[in-house]
Amino acid sequence: MNKENNAPMQGNINGIDRQSYEPAYIQLVNILKQHVSSGIMRPGDRLPSESQLCRQYQVSPMTVRRAINILSDQGIVDTVQGRGTFVKPIKLIAATFHLNELQGIFDDRQTNVKILEVRIVSSDRRTAEKLGIAVRDRVIYIRRLLTRKKKPLLYHREYLIYDPLRPVVESELEVTSLKGLFEGEGGSDFKRGDLSIEATIINEEEAKILQTQIGSAAFCLEHIFYDFEDKPVSWGYFICPGDQLRFATTVGFRPEGVQD
Amino acid sequence: MNKENNAPMQGNINGIDRQSYEPAYIQLVNILKQHVSSGIMRPGDRLPSESQLCRQYQVSPMTVRRAINILSDQGIVDTVQGRGTFVKPIKLIAATFHLNELQGIFDDRQTNVKILEVRIVSSDRRTAEKLGIAVRDRVIYIRRLLTRKKKPLLYHREYLIYDPLRPVVESELEVTSLKGLFEGEGGSDFKRGDLSIEATIINEEEAKILQTQIGSAAFCLEHIFYDFEDKPVSWGYFICPGDQLRFATTVGFRPEGVQD
DNA sequence: TAGTGGTCTAGACCACTTA
DNA sequence: AAGTGGTCTAGACCACTAG
Questions:
Q1: Which is nearest to B63 in space by CA: B21, B20, B29, B12?
Q2: Which candidate in B35, B41, B63, B93 is best for mutational testing of the A interface (most A CBs within 10 A)?
Q3: What are the tens digits of pLDDT across the range B35-58?
Q4: What is the CATH code for B99-244?
């Protein structure tokens, strides 16, 4: 992120600088973005054709193509075969929210994960359903609390399939495993994870642990992880007080040039 | 989405079918994905080198390159210059949530937008701050209610810069403008929009309008739109009862092949 | 030094849209 | 028929990593 910023946002408006460390296709992306964000090109307008861009910027068709593909991936233009490439209007509905806003939390040295409880329990109906097992089957139950600067931030409850043959417990129990879960540095031999976010209300137990008010707003981030045979291996959810977290994003063009 | 499914998930494991309508690079992407999702390739493993893949599947370097770029974009592999391409472990933190889960709402014919109120008001401190204007400056205040099957779904409050020179009112007032805001079909001559999602609690006014309980959980989706001069033109927020909405996503490999 | 990924060329052929 | 985007080739040169 913090590389040399001697030549930020290349692409002289006029043309492509072949001496630059920035690849030609990136420069072209930035030039075209600049045209859109500055209003030279408005939503609905057609871009110059690919062959025109080739001539105009003295690059090969593949390079133009690559630049346009990137703009298309970023939702800035629409390409229609036989008609052309068009600037897209901004759609609120195209917005995406990234969980990696939480990244900073784990990088912070003042963040701490405490295991509140680990024990083997008999699964209730909901847990059995989520994990695809029978009610009363044994599962490992873990409660964790993530704090930053001594302040409670996330309360996590998780149920793991109990498999004596593959004692996943040890690795899961590491204090860092929550970080590993998020950042995937641990083994993470999962095939996939299904996540969902809901709005919820802090209950009595959560209020006590998170040191907040009963009835205050919170996010609930639920997760189910599956192994390579598509069988669930764990189910759990994070509770995060609403005043500690906010998901933010931008549609269209960010004020700074940094968007990749 | 629902095109001919005669040959779903091409790429015979063995090689690339040149007769297929599916492009070679897509077939290669699917083959490599299959290797990862089936466990043949595990997180941390190195992919065959690009020249190896060229020989193995009888395609040109650019085609291999394109396939690998796609896998890299999708967060499935990491490429390191000089070392190789590696299968990435699953990261919870890489999850993204898409607002377009709301798409279905607007496609539904039983969805209806009602304008509850429009008037010109004097901006309070918060509104003035958000819109970058002076306190007491006049703004247009709009309240809308979006219902589906007669059931309240979203409550929207919005403040627009009042500019007599450019009467944005008429177009904004159309019943469909909420849909236009989301789907960008209207003019949408905005340069960008900043969004954020918070967890919140339904207050008395909202409870009455949304026909829910005071104190129940809800999402608050706030938005500020900027024109091409980077000046705010509108600020507002949607309130959506928590039991009406849930954001879901998958990290890793979705059960069906559909992910684009 | 050998192998890897990163970029780029200068074309080619195809499918599609529009007139 | 002309113009557009979509795909693909068969190389080339470079920067980086490793032994």
A1: B29
A2: B93
A3: 998 888 988 899 999 999 999 999
A4: 3.40.1410.10
Residues whose CB falls within 8 Å of the CB of residue A223, separated by 6 or more in sequence, listed in order = A193, A194, A195, A234, A235, A236, A237, A238, B92
Q: Could you check: is the Cβ of residue A18 within 7 Å of any atom of nucleic acid strand D?
A: no
The amino acid sitting at A32 is L
What pairs with residue A221 in β-bridges? A197, A238
- For A247, the closest of B188, B197, B246 (CB atoms) is B197
Residue bearing the bigger pLDDT, B138 or A254: B138
Look at B106 and A36; give whichever has higher pLDDT: A36
Q: How confident is the model at residue A17 (pLDDT cuts 50, 70, 90)?
A: confident
Closest CA to B244 of B187, B182, B202: B202
- The domain ranges of chain A are 24-89, 99-244
d(CA A138, CA A119): 10
How many Cβ atoms from other residues are within 10 Å of residue B86's Cβ?
16
Residues A215-230 have a mean pLDDT of 92
For B94-112, what is the mean pLDDT?
A: 82
* A:11-70 residues touching chain B, CB 8 A cutoff: 37-39, 42-43, 62
Residue A181 and residue B92: Cβ atoms within 8 Å? yes
CATH class of A24-89: mainly alpha
Q: pLDDT averaged over chain A?
A: 84
Q: Is the CB of A81 under 7 A from strand D?
A: yes
